[in-house]
Amino acid sequence: MVLCTGPTWFPMVGNFLDLKRKCQEKKYLHEAVAAMAREHDTSVLGLRLGSELTVVVFGYQMVKEVCGREEFDGRPDTFFIRLRGMGGRGGITFTDGRIWQEHRSFAVRRLRQVGLGRAAMDDIIMDELQELVRLFGESAAAGRAVSIGRSFAPSVLNVLWVLTTGSSFLSREDPRLHSLLKAIKARSIAFNMAGGILNYFPWMRFLAPEWTGYNLILRLNSDLKDIFLATIAEHQARYSPDKTDDLIDAFLHEMESRQGDSASSFTVDQLVMICMDFFIAGSQTASTTLDYVFLMMLLYPDVQRRAQAQLDAVVGTARLPKIADRKKLPYVEAVLMEVQRLHQATPIAGPRRVTNATKLQGYDIPKARRMLFLPQDTTVLISLWSVHRDEQHWGDPTVFRPERHLTDSGELLADDWLLPFGLGKRRCLGEALARSCMFIFFAGVLQNFEILPVPDKELPEEDPTPGLLLSPQPYMVMLKSRLSRYVTESSHQVVFVLAVTSYIKRFGKPDNFPPGRFNQNALYDQPVLMNWSRGHNPANLRYVHNVANMLPN
């Protein structure tokens, strides 16, 4: 058997200590494993972490191959995965085989039926944008610094809540929203802290349940489960076979139709886990990306101004941006693409399990290996970070440059190497929703506000906070309403028009004057007036035109 290239294994711990040292040196797990791969000059790195055989793949060709091969579509069945699944193996994200195929197909079909990708869904996102603009407007008017990136999680959760339950939270003060936000955030932190120990040394939970974070995770799991069970119970109480307007109702309808089938996987426990998958994966990825987008706008004001100029030219100020504007705003879209390339929230895609013994780049990849008399599956990790930071493809991969995603004529340039939502059958289920939320929230906020540094404060660092999910370090911004600029420009234009009118009335052609060519002041000519205004905001241009039309002839 030809095993993958990698560092020497040590008894019991394997390469765990090597990886820990490298993480301390590089700060981030994705950079640590990439450095180990470079040391061994390989794009397929073989490790043993605890008792678990682990293969890490790097580069576009290897990532594409693994994501496209069926034998790499499995998900690990480990203690840590079952801990995440509240003691079982349910949901969509961390299942495989028949259950995964059945429930992914159901979710895709039902999400389309309840509004995903349709005008109704866009309206829900627009409602959340209006609320964001209102809240940010209050902060701007009061001159308060804002943690802008952290403000998007409630909005994304509200959109997901509508899809799942059919009703929105009453307000940002709704206790259910606060409970859900708190549980998801605390659980994410707990898993970041406990993951390394409990994943590879699960027996440590018996020796130090508090120190390892095991007891904390159990409590947070229970809190999150209670939230979803309460909502499911409300739906069960008012269930009608004719009403499947949201995901929970649709799932209950499927449960009802399969009553009597003992092999059915449509259970309340499975529904809880599907809700968890949607809310945890969906809300964290979109809100974390938006967090980074606005950090980059703060650090790169020239990019911010160029995006705002395109928004002014295409959308104006009379309305908010819509999904339909997306194709007309290539630079705005390119900014989002570049942030997802440079600062992807998930640099290493969710772990895969080898379902059949196979080969990869000439190396033997066993389905399972017997460890301490128990079969241990081989886990495969996929470095999306290595694709997004490939120097040969991107040229200057560490530079923030949205123009790389545009053609010379300014059109959006598709690139197969951009993989923020993964690749293959395991591609993110909520991609369409995440893209819509990110575009609308980014474009709408940028249209209405300038993102400015807090006076007398140093600019924040661009480096992320270490963890399984990469997010920016906490930062604050000042918001300045761009509406005040539009009002000032409009006021100047109206004053100009009125001044010209007054001049013409005073020095123009008198009433009942004998016929003949009179030297009319060219400034009163509306085409000239419109020419003068060219380059200003389109909404203001229309406003001046309307004022000119009201003037006496």
UniProtKB/TrEMBL annotation:
Record CDD domains: CYP15A1-like
**What Gene Ontology terms describe where this protein resides (cellular component)?**
endoplasmic reticulum membrane
Q: Which InterPro entries match?
A: Cyt_P450 (IPR001128), Cyt_P450_CS (IPR017972), Cyt_P450_E_grp-I (IPR002401), Cyt_P450_sf (IPR036396), Cytochrome_P450_fam2 (IPR050182)
Which co-factor is required?
A: heme
| Pfam families, alphabetized | p450
Q: Which residues form the signal peptide?
A: none
Q: Which domain of life is it from?
A: Eukaryota
Query: Which UniProt key words apply to this protein?
Result: Endoplasmic reticulum, Heme, Iron, Membrane, Metal-binding, Microsome, Monooxygenase, Oxidoreductase
Q: How does it sit in the membrane?
A: Peripheral membrane protein
Q: Where does heme bind?
A: C428
The cellular location(s) given in this protein's UniProt record come to: Endoplasmic reticulum membrane; Microsome membrane
Biological-process GO terms, alphabetical: organic acid metabolic process; xenobiotic metabolic process
GO molecular-function annotation terms?
heme binding; iron ion binding; oxidoreductase activity, acting on paired donors, with incorporation or reduction of molecular oxygen, reduced flavin or flavoprotein as one donor, and incorporation of one atom of oxygen; steroid hydroxylase activity
Family annotation (PANTHER family): CYTOCHROME P450 15A1, CYTOCHROME P450 508A4-RELATED
Tell me, what does this protein do in biology? May be involved in the metabolism of insect hormones and in the breakdown of synthetic insecticides.
Per the record, the similarity remark reads: Belongs to the cytochrome P450 family.
Task: Return the protein name.
Answer: Cytochrome P450
Organism, scientific name = Coptotermes formosanus
